[in-house]
Sequence to fold (339 residues):
Amino acid sequence: MKNRRLLAALVATPLTFMTLGTATVAQAAGPDLKVGSLVLSRGSVAVSSLNTVPVTVTMTGSAKPSDYDTFYVEFTGGQRDLYSMPMKLIKGTLDDGTWQGVVNVPSTANGTIKVTRVIAGSFFFGCTQCTFDYPVPVNGPTLAVTGVHIPKIVGTSTPKVVPIGKPVAITWTITDSQTGKPYGTRIKTWPGKDNTCTEGIPDVVLTDVNGRLTLQDKSNYGLYCLRIPGNPGPIAGDAILVKSSTTVAATPSKTSAPVGTIVPVNGTAPYAAGCTINLQRLYGASQWRTVGTAKVRTSARFTLNAQPAYKGNIPYRAQLPACYDIVAATSKPFTIKGI
Fold:
């Protein structure tokens, strides 16, 4: 569902801070980027609602080879990770230069965020799990962010439980988490599904003035997400897995067998590969008890072993407990006669 690619980071030995909003960083191993210092134009910022506040980032260092002359700074901590705009060379040369750029701080970064990496090379702002050419870890300066009226994103599905592959409506609502009310304006969003939640930038879709957006999907399966665009990356986002239903079918290889004989029960549970499947036997009039378990194979097939315990008709069924986003399901009961 998601393409998670990571590169080994270059090792840097962090040094202590110089002043508020400033840090000195040891040179990173490797020939590509050596960071001298990182400075923020301010040590704290207050941000409200859907707004962002720019903070200037200045970096000194050297970059070899000269294939890369643009860099990005990554902040972690607070309530979300954050990236700067491209940092451009404003003074000196690649061998000994000063780069500068802006990080647009949203209210959703509320808390203390810290510069932890400088990224050289290709970077796709719509991607949250992409490969960077040269990520260099640093012990950079911190920024205290006070976020107020932070946007809250809630996603729901109609119906609540949807058969896999059947139509579903996804409704997103964006409200002010402090007041519980909408912002009273149409909000630009990036709705996505599965890979588009982590890779690439989908088309912009506007909510209504109540912060609501309903999208129809012809085939329910996978992850649904909504992000609020920012510059360069989203300022907020959330994702949901729709509760999905599947069908369980089970058939014994024999309808009768001597008491104590193992009878294979074969069945299918589409989309439930890797999930546990139980064989249950009816005790009394209504009590089903698990008497065996197996795993659903990648083919969506499974095999359970029944073993008639006494002479007479014995009711069985296959039961799939809730697994991932799939709700619990059972097969139709079947009977094996002990003889």
Observations:
- The longest strand covers residues 52-63.
- DSSP finds no helices and 30 strands in the chain.
